[in-house]
Design brief:
By secondary structure, the protein is an alpha+beta fold. The chain folds into 3 domains: 228 residues, no CATH class; 43 residues; 155 residues, Sandwich (Jelly Rolls). Helices cover 63% and strands 10% of the residues. The protein has 21 helices and 10 strands. The strands form 3 sheets. It has a 4-stranded antiparallel sheet. Strand 1 and strand 2 form a beta hairpin. Helix 3 runs parallel beside helix 10, helix 16 packs across helix 18 and helix 20 packs across helix 21. The longest helix is centred in the middle third of the chain and has 31 residues. The termini are far apart. Bound molecules: adenosine-3',5'-cyclic-monophosphate. Adenosine-3',5'-cyclic-monophosphate binds next to strand 7, helix 19 and helix 21.
Length: 447
């Protein structure tokens, strides 16, 4: 059992190798899908048969090597990772056929073994079957969690559009023929120009179909182009608008807020304060509505996310380190984030207390009603604990936000749990409390 647990599987141990192979195979598959139609359309086979056939054979061998390796390779499915026989069966049932047909050196086979005729060239287009693997790879590439997911989507999108434009251009050369007196490169550039103007529905009309096959081909390309163009515009627009959806949502909130404040004739200073508060939330990332986004996660995942998002709070109190995970979960579920603007009174002297505060960012001033500011507390420090340690004691002082403050509010129940679970922390809190009370008594004596 133990050896089974410690054994490193091929997927874990050499995942960089599989990743490299995937990139290589996809690049080769795309290369073949670009190269082959160009060779057929521009009749490269006749001009450099040795080079064309050796490239065809080499790339085929690499793709066949990938098929052999796939039989050894664990595969991730929605049901989990499959190994050994199960993985092989899965491959045989899914992409084996596509991979095999798409990997054989069709150009080489047709040239050497098949009778030369009308089918000898088109048969090499079977290499396009390998694009099935590129489709799977693109989907995985886009779905892999990444900060650059929009860039990834655009890259994949552009790859496919470019491939379609290239294939259409090669098709145009095939029906139009290589223009007399022009080199292959110039012919290709003209065809590419025709393809782009047709697909983008621009159609300047300087390259027009003359024969019937050209007209039919142009009509088909225009129909395809109209659909493709609509998809491109819609996708790119949606990707660009989503590239900063959080900022867009924030701007729209501020816009609505501005309208409301003007409509209600709020004083300028209050409007400024409200806008300043939102700007602070935006800049510190405290304004993101996590609940909305994470609400439908499973309870276990939600707890892990909570632990991760609040890790900085736990890091601020060294005495809480090393706590058991269930205690940390319980502690975190008892924390509430609150933000105060400069000048806000967080605690009022003489009132009963039901919560204490941990300062995550900013500074507060402890204000004695008679003596003024008696202490300034900053990041990592806490206040409001005295009224919790002794429920009969009202708040000893005012506490006022000196700057914008991001605080974690800890309710009475959670505070009791923390004291119970962390004796070191409890001793520290009691010692600090004794000093604060002594200082307060001293001040009262002085007055
Ligand atoms: P509490 O009395 O609940 O509410 C006011 C808080 O101000 C108090 O708890 C302490 O956390 C804090 N406080 C009071 N006096 C001092 C002091 N001298 N130094 C630092 N903090 C204080």
């Amino acid at each position: 059992m133990k050896s089974k647990e410690t054994k490193i599987t091929l997927s874990e141990g050499t995942s960089w190798f599989w990743k490299f192979l995937d990139w290589l195979v996809v690049s080769v598959a795309v290369f073949r899908s670009v190269e082959l139609p160009a060779i057929v359309a521009l009749k490269f086979l006749q001009s450099a048969p040795l080079l064309v056939l050796s490239v065809n054979l080499t790339t085929s061998l690499l793709l066949i090597f990938d098929i052999l390796l796939r039989f050894q390779r664990p595969v991730s499915t929605a049901r989990g990772t499959l190994h050994g026989k199960q993985a092989r069966l899965h491959y045989l049932e899914t992409y084996f056929f596509w991979d095999l047909i798409g990997s054989l050196p069709w150009g080489f086979i047709s040239n050497l073994f098949l009778p030369q005729g009308v089918w000898s060239e088109p048969i090499s287009f079977l290499c396009l079957f390998r694009l099935a693997r590129v489709v799977v790879f693109s989907k995985d590439f886009v779905r892999t969690p990444s900060r650059f997911f929009i860039a990834r989507r655009l890259t994949v999108f552009l790859l496919w559009i470019t491939l379609v434009i290239h294939l259409l251009a090669c098709g145009w050369i095939a029906v139009d023929g290589v223009t007399h007196g022009l080199t292959a490169g110039h012919t290709y550039i003209r065809a590419l120009y025709w393809s782009v103007t047709t697909v983008s529905t621009t159609g300047f009309g300087d390259i027009t179909p003359k024969t019937e096959p050209q007209m039919i081909y142009t009509m088909l390309a225009m129909i395809l182009g109209a659909g493709l163009y609509a998809t491109v515009v819609a996708n790119v627009a949606s990707l660009i608008s989503r590239s900063d959806s959080a900022r867009a949502a924030f701007d729209s909130k501020i816009e609505r807020l501005n309208t409301l404040m003007k409509y209600k004739n709020m004083p300028d200073s209050l409007q400024k304060q409200i806008l300043g508060y939102h700007e602070y939330l935006w800049q510190t990332g405290l304004g993101h509505d996590h609940d909305d986004l994470l609400g439908d996660l499973s309870p276990g995942l939600r707890r892990s996310v909570g632990l991760f998002l609040n890790r900085h709070i736990l890091e601020q109190i060294p005495m809480l380190r090393g706590a058991e995970t269930p205690v940390l979960h319980r502690l975190i579920s008892g924390l509430t984030s609150v933000v105060y603007t400069p000048g806000d009174t967080i605690i009022h002297h003489g009132e009963p207390g039901s919560a204490m505060y941990l300062i995550n960012r900013g500074e507060v001033e402890v204000v004695d009603p008679k003596q003024g500011v008696v202490a300034t507390l900053g990041e990592g420090e806490y206040f409001g604990e005295l009224a919790l340690l002794d429920p009969d004691r009202p708040r000893l002082a005012d506490v006022r936000a000196k700057t914008f403050c991001a605080l974690s509010l800890i309710d009475r129940e959670t505070f009791s749990l923390v004291l119970e679970q962390f004796p070191d922390f409890a001793a520290h809190v009691r010692k600090v409390a004794a000093t604060r009370i002594a200082e307060s008594d001293l001040r009262a004596g002085q007055v």
